[in-house]
UniProtKB/TrEMBL annotation:
GO function terms (MF aspect): ATP binding; metal ion binding; protein folding chaperone; protein-folding chaperone binding; unfolded protein binding
Organism expressing this protein natively: freshwater metagenome
Segment forming the signal sequence: none
Family membership: Belongs to the GroES chaperonin family.
Keywords: Chaperone
Name by which UniProt lists this protein: Unannotated protein
PANTHER family with a match to the protein in the record: 10 KDA HEAT SHOCK PROTEIN, CO-CHAPERONIN GROES
Pfam families (UniProt xref): Cpn10
InterPro entries: Chaperonin_GroES, Chaperonin_GroES_sf, GroES-like_sf
Length: 107
């Protein structure tokens, strides 16, 4: 957290900080597409895990996770915006420790 205050998440809850660059993106022609632009398909987002509850099994603090940002609970702590979700809402985990496991996908 910004001021060093520890947070203890409960159950299987995960607290994440959404990547700043996840907002705007560029088309192949160089056109800037704002985060508020409506897309045909739902877009997933990457975030950094800040804290996890004691029942989270596959996610650890410091991991990057892929999740669907719509309909998630947002919370502001000391001016920083975070998202709270259940571990089951995480689609993928990107971390060095998962490199030893055969996933078939390398991000």
């Amino acid at each position: 957290m910004g001021d060093g205050t520890p947070i203890k998440m409960l159950h299987d809850r995960v607290l994440v900080e959404v990547d700043k660059e996840a907002g705007e993106r560029r088309s192949s022609g160089g056109i800037v597409i704002p985060a508020t632009a409506a897309m045909g398909a739902r877009r997933l987002a990457w975030a950094r895990v800040v804290a996890v509850g004691p029942h989270a099994r596959a996610v650890q603090a410091g991991d990057r996770v892929l999740f669907e940002p719509d309909d998630k609970s947002e919370v502001e702590v000391h001016g920083e915006l975070y998202v709270v979700m259940r571990e089951r809402d995480v689609h993928a985990v990107a971390a060095e420790r998962v490199g030893d496991q055969a996933t078939g996908l390398y991000l």
